[in-house]
Design a protein that fits this description.
Elements: E1 18-22, H1 27-38, E2 42-47, H2 50-64, E3 68-72, H3 78-92, E4 97-100, H4 115-143, E5 147-152, H5 156-159, H6 165-184, E6 190-197, H7 203-209, H8 212-218, H9 232-243, E7 254-257, H10 261-266, H11 277-288
Parallel strand pairs: 1-2, 1-4, 2-3, 4-5, 5-6, 6-7
Bound molecules: hexanoyl-coenzyme A and NADP nicotinamide-adenine-dinucleotide phosphate (NAP).
């Protein structure tokens, strides 16, 4: 059983909100479900594996005593997405928030991928997101209800990254979708934002992106100025703020939370962080000597 997150918002901040979280049975989605429950929301989690969803609902009910349920849904299938919306309305009479968190990913040289392998990632990540956005968005527009959509992307959605090309392509699509609809649907009271996390340890991501050999080669913590991976509660404080009415004036933003990781990879001279004081004495001498 997990422990309660230390959250900055007061415990009624999401009172009366109904939140649907895709991929909510594991990893960051599960943490998001917990954080929303801690702040008074009613939560529905969804993914493909019923036994995982059932176990998470049970665990989070015991931990928070709050109102959580699940519905099996493959986000790639628009019909299943419509059934998910119908089930949510049946259970809670309304829905206020959609979190697009479900994803598929693994590292591989792109030339090794079949079109099916490329499809599978893009379909879960991008198609899954626009299926949710269209289904829930149309409902909110029809009933005239204010609502919020939050999507989880990643920093390489804007920088790109070798060896995760289907994921980078799909996440970049979500960024475009988020910024476009933030403008188009603002008039309906629907706001859309995204979060771009750096590495936050989860079983799902670590097993597919940092297998032992890669972890030892990459030494991923060294790539982060703050010298450590993100903590789930740090991300949950950002997530719950962006879902709450306190952030009502934030619309169309992609908020990075990565300890400065992508900037460290980008700056021309950032690799000189490895130089010792003696190295710098030598460098200074060489420069001043010119
Ligand atoms: C090359 C591969 C492969 C690999 C699968 N395939 N793994 N190709 N290298 N390592 C190919 C298969 O051969 C097949 O193509 C196609 O991909 C589909 O594979 P299946 O195993 O049949 O698919 P499925 O069982 O549906 O599983 C989908 C999955 C799996 C995406 C492959 O990993 C999954 O269920 N993932 C869900 C959770 C997840 O990925 N979480 C991590 C998110 S982390 P062929 O042509 O051979 O049939 C994340 C973090 C981002 O996004 C940022 C971090 C900093
Ligand atoms: P995770 O635990 O593997 O979460 C992915 C979830 O997506 C799983 O619960 C999975 O459940 C669900 N899913 C996959 N395919 C689905 C489908 N077709 N329909 C419905 N649900 C599906 O990994 P995570 O690390 O928590 O990742 C969560 C999100 O954060 C992802 O969007 C990821 O890209 C993003 N992210 C993570 C990190 C990180 O460091 N962890 C960094 C940046 C961004 P089922 O298998 O049961 O369907």
């Amino acid at each position: 059983m997990g422990t309660v997150f230390p959250l900055m918002l007061s415990s009624e901040s999401l009172q009366n909100k109904v939140v649907v979280i895709t991929g909510g049975g594991t990893g960051l989605g599960k943490s998001m479900a917990q954080a929303c429950l801690q702040l008074g929301a009613k939560v529905l989690i969804t993914s493909r594996k019923e036994e995982v969803l059932r176990a998470t609902v049970q665990e989070l009910k015991e931990l928070t005593g709050a109102d959580i349920t699940y519905c099996v849904c493959d986000v790639r299938d628009s019909k299943q997405m419509e059934l998910l919306l119908a089930y949510t309305l049946e259970q809670f009479s309304k829905v206020d928030i959609l979190v697009n968190n479900a994803a598929g990913n693994f590292i591989s040289p792109t030339e090794r991928l079949s079109t099916k392998a490329f499809d599978i990632i893009v379909d879960i990540v991008l198609k899954g997101t626009y299926n949710g956005v269209l289904t829930f968005g149309k409902h909110w527009i029809e009933v005239g209800q204010k609502a919020t959509i939050l999507s989880i992307v990643t920093t390489y959605a804007t920088t790109g990254s070798a060896f995760v090309v289907p994921s980078a392509t799909a996440k970049a699509g979500i960024v475009a979708l988020t910024k476009s609809l933030a403008v188009e649907w603002g008039r309906y009271g629907i706001r859309l934002n995204a979060i771009a996390p750096g590495p936050f340890p989860t079983e799902g991501a670590w097993s597919r992106l940092f297998p032992e050999f890669v972890a030892s080669k990459l030494n991923p913590e060294n790539r982060i100025p703050t010298g450590r991976f993100g903590r789930h509660e740090e991300l949950m404080n950002l997530v719950t703020y962006l879902l709450s009415d306190y952030s009502e004036y934030i619309n169309g933003e992609i908020v990075t939370i990565d300890g400065g990781e992508w900037l460290q990879g980008a700056g021309e001279f950032n690799t000189l962080l490895d130089l010792s004081a003696d190295d710098w004495n030598l460098v200074e001498k060489q420069i001043r000597g010119k």
